Each structure stands twice: as C-alpha cells, then as structure tokens.
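== Fold encoding ==
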Amino acid sequence: MIDDEQKPKNDDDVISRIHKMCEDASDYWADNYDRAQEDRRFVTIDDEQWPESDRKARKAAGIPTLTFNVLRTYCRQQINSARLNRQQIKAEPVDDVADPKVAKIFNGLIRDTEISSGADNAYDAAVEGVVYGGFGAIRVHVDYVSPDSFQQEPKILTIHNPDSVYFDPLSKELDGSDARFVILESWVSKDEIAEQYGEDAVSNFDESQAKDTSSSSWYNYADKAVRIAEVFELQRNSADLYLLIDGTTTFDKPDDDTLIQNKRTSYKEVCWWYKVSGTKVLEDREFIVPMLPIVPVYGDVTWDGETRYVYSMIHFARDPQRLYNFWKSSEAQQIVEGLRKQYLVSDQASQDLECWDNPNDHQVLRYNSVSDEDGTPLPPPQQLPSLSALSGILNAADGAKQGIEEILNMQPAAMGQNVNNQSGRAIGLLQQRADVSFFHITDNLNKSLAQLGRILIGIYQKAYSVPMVKRITGEDNKAERVPLNTPAPPDETDGVIDGMLNNLTVGRYDIRMSTGPSYISQRQENKQALTELLQFVPQIGQAAPDLLVKAFDDGNMLEDIVERIKRSLNPVLTQEGEGDPQVEAVMQQYQQQMQELQAALQQSQAQLNDKNAELQIKFDIEKLKSETTLQVAQINNVAKAQLEELKGAIELILQQMQPPAEWMNVDLKDGQPPEPIPEQITPNPAAEQGFLMPDEQQMIEQQMLEQQAQQQNFAPDDGQIGIDAQNMAVNEQNPELDGIQGINRE
C-alpha cells in the first residue's frame, strides 16, 4: 500500500494531475486515432467509401455510386483465421523454487478464467480493432466472487472501443509492459453519475448549455453526458531491502541486527487506480498487483525518429478500393446507357408527336411520313449505334482489384478461390505468403497475451494465497477441482513446495505462447489421424479400447461407454488404481514374479556360458582333425598322380632305347631299390579349398592304403631289368607322411 504521506494531498491535486495526463496522452495519439477511425469507418460503414461531395454530385446527375467492399472480405478472412488458430497461454517455471506441476495448475486456472469470463470475445474484439484500425486492447478486472464473499477472482473484459484507451506516450514495447500509466475513458449519463456519486461530481455541468450542440472536453451538453476517466498508474516508493543470513530478502527490518547480512536501497511499486470526473475523484484504491491491467494490441507500427505511426491492415489499400468502386459504377452506367436507344429523326417527321420527347419510354413510335416541298417522302427515323467503352472499363476495374490484391499480398489462392494452371504447391506457397504478410498481427497478439498471462499469474499468487479448492480446466475443456496451498501428505512429492501442496505463492513463472487450431479443429484432425493409424496398427483397439473411444468422444453418451469399458479392463492398464489395496497386491505379485524370472534368467545364462565353452573346445578339435585329414589326402593324391606319370615316362624311354645285354645281369645295389627321382608336388586347388565330397574323401583314403601296400612290396617291373639301378629314382615312402598317416589310421 502507498503511504498516506506519499499520496496526493487532496482531490484537486489528483484531478489536476490526471487531467494533464489525459490531455497529453490525447494529443499524442490524436493523429493515429483519427487515421484509425477513418480506416474503420471506410471498411465497416455504408457509403463511407465515397466522399460526401462526390456522392451528392453523382446522385444529382443520375450517375450511380456503387460500393463493392472487397476490403471487408479480406479483413474478415484475417479475423476468422485468428479465431480458428487460437493462441494458448502457457506458464513455465523459471527458478528452482517453481514447480512444473504448479505451472500446469496455473495453465488450468488461466483456461478456466478465459472460459468463465468469455475471453474469446475480448480477443476477437482486439483483433478486429487491429485489422480495421490498427489498435486493440484487453482488460483484466478483479472483483469479489459474490457480494457476501471476500474471495477475489480475475475476469477478462472486452474493450469494444479501442480509441477510448490512451497509453503512456513514453511506452514503446508492443505489449505495453514499459508503460507507467494507462487511461480508459467513457461517456456516462450526467444523471447516472449524480445519482451514484452525488451532485458535486457534475457540479460544473452547465444546465443552461444543455440545448447547445457544443461540447467541452469533459461534458457533452447535447447528450447530457459527462466524461469519466479510469486511470491506472504505477507508483514507486523508495525502501530499504535487507538480505538475511539465511539467504532470504525482506523490506521489513528485523529486530535482531545480527540476522542482516547485507542492505541496499530499492523500491516498492504499486498500481493505483483512480476514477475521476471533471470535478471529483469518484473512487481510488490500490490494484491487487503492481502491473497495469490493460494490455494494448498493435497492428502495423512504424517509427520515424520519435514519431510513431500505427496503420490498419487496409490503410494503404483504400485508394485502389475507391478506384474499383469508380470503375464498377462506370461499368453500370455504361450498361444503362447501352440499354437506352437513340434515334435520328427529322423535325417534320416528329412534329407534334410527344413520343419522340423520350422514345425509351414508349413501346410504339409514330412519325409523319409526309413529303417535303419537293414531293419526296420523308425517311423513317433511324436508330443510332450505341457508343460504349465497356471493355476498357472492365479492364480498368480488374486492374484496380488486382491492385488491392497486390497491396494486401492476398492472391485469389489465399482466399480459397480456384486458380487455373497452378499446381497445389504453387497455391500453397501463395497462401503461405499471405499468412507471412500479416504475421505481425498474430505475433503482436501473442506478445500482448503473454503480458496478459503474466498479469493473471501475479493475480493468482496474490488472490489465491490461502488454502482452498479451485476449479481448473484442461486443454480438452474438461474441468477438475484441485487443492491449493494445503499441507502436503507424507507420501506426496509432486507439486510440494516448502511442505505445501500446490503452493502458488512462491516461485517465478514465465509465459510461453503457442498458436494452433482450436480444440475442436484439433479433435477433428486427431480423429482423422487416429482412423488412418488404426488401419495399420489394429492392436491399438486391443491395448487401449477405452482411450480409443474417449478419443472419438463428441460429448454425447460416449462417457458411459468409456466407463463401462474401463470396468472390464485390468485396473493396472488404466493407471487409475493408485491407493487401491487390490491393485497394490496385484502389483506386488507381478514384481515378485519379475524378480524370480530375472534370477532364473541369470542362472540359465551362466549355464549356457559353460556349455558354450565346452562346445567350442569340441568344435576346435573336430575342426583340426578335419583339416589334417584333408591335407593328408591332398599329399597322397598328388604323390600317386606323379608316380603314375613317372612310370609312363620310363616306359616310353624303354621303348626307344634297348639296354645292352650285359646290363641285364647287374644286381641292385645293396639289395635296395634305387632312390626315387624327386618330384615337385602340385597342389590340388579343389582339396585346398575344401571342395572334396565325402565320396571323394573315401576314395582318396582307399588309394592311400593301396599306395602304402605297393610301397612296402616294391619291385622293379620287367622293363627295368638291366638298367642302371643307381640312376633310377623310385618314390620312397616319406617318414613324415608315415607319421601323418599313422594319426589318420588311428
């Protein structure tokens, strides 16, 4: 609260100061408000698109003054687009004291306030003010819930006349957060104010001038009305801020100075509300939070140095609209003139015939067919061809309309019209370009609603500071009741701050905006997406039938169906069995079974690891045996092939050379066969690559046995008798081969 000595000393000082604020603000915004009023009337009031002088002159001449209000169509397109895509105010925790669950409660309180106070009307009126005139405003009002209650709650009110709101001229932020004051003016009946606040509230109202049409800045004598100004002003008072040893801060100095860790000069800020007439302060009190409860919504704002220009959506399209009206009116005039027939007739032929004074009003035209002085018959009247420039007028009218589209950057595709020779992607880009052209309207509205959300959170933290139960509304418009600022149960952790459940009075919360389709549009889109998803994932209907039915709920009798399906399901699946002993017992049983399964799984895994190790050793042994057998078979197969080749070569040599007879009696040296001729072993690719079949391997082993038998009973054949046995090389069994074969035989 403001100290009494810091408030103005008397009403005269307050009135003088407030009147000065109103005059300064009115002078500052006069040009912009005049421009806004012209634009608003141009697009919303009949006959305002023609100047009064032109309309009277054309009417006297019989020339039509038609109005084809194309701009209003474009304006409604933008306004209805904003209605379809509602902005949503969402609170988010900022510091370590704030809680996400409490932020959700703030969101539910904001939605409940919007629904209960009809905030959509206030938002729509603000958007219309921006589109038509460049200005809009939204007001937050705090009042008692009933005449017999001390509980206060906020309401969002509609401001239908944005020209009645005057913001601080020094404010430059688009959401008005830097304004120090705001003024809301209205004209009220003089008798009503006198009855409610006394005759001294209108003491300067001169009854003698009641018949006069003139008006002063605070009195309208013609309507017997007085001007009432509501002023919200932020006022700062210097104060000492103390930092205590426990980390808390306070403006109240503690009795024990040892508790003070630091001190600095700061300030306290309050918002003071005045309601004044021309002569009296009618009411004044402190607003619940130190924030201005009226939020501006701006359109197209342009700064030229320190001069601010605010434009509506249609301001720069007014001239093309006038030109379009002119050419369409000219087109109508040409068509009317084309329907009027003109005739060429001589004076003698039309003499004394009234029908020729206005031939278009008569169905039958008569003429005098007498002869002239020379006896020549007079020619009949001739109809003249109509002179029309209708094609040129049509082209000019189309050009004017195209000028409107180009200035607004809203092509026919953006308005939902069918455009030939354009792909769907091209049409989508045109629509997107139109949305981008006027995105500043949506963005400015987001900024203003974010400031509105901060004001509401501040009000909730002040007004809802005691234990209570309040209604909140979810995103699906379903309401529920939640306890606020109550002692937390022992097992509760979510939303608990300093031992209090859903404590709204502590923590800092900020606002984030999200723009999207309304809940009805979202539900329709979700239904379509869910229907398509069920075609590919039919298991959804088995896993969550109650949620599926709820998703298609249109608010009729499907709530009963949902409840009936829930009763047939396991309570664990619906996650609504918390606190139920039966459900807890089921959960404990499931947990015990899970632990037993995990222990059995670990034991099986250990046994499996031992078994895998044993199998790996056996696999390695068998692999080594197989490789050894293949290598022996390769060596024996190659040796036998080379031996057969050597025998064939010797036989060929013996056929060509006959040894001497004396050689026939030569004995073998030491009774041993000659040493074999060394041969180069040729590897067998197929054997090395492991391509031998089982039958081939058995054949190779059989050949190895036969070869061993031949080597043990070796003797030269008949062709070798008489040849020098020392020069004959015969294959001898390799000792290493015997060892390998010995392993193979075992």
Q: What stands out?
A: DSSP finds 20 helices and 21 strands in the chain. The first strand starts at residue 87 and ends at 93. Residues 603 and 609 are 10 Å apart (CA to CA).
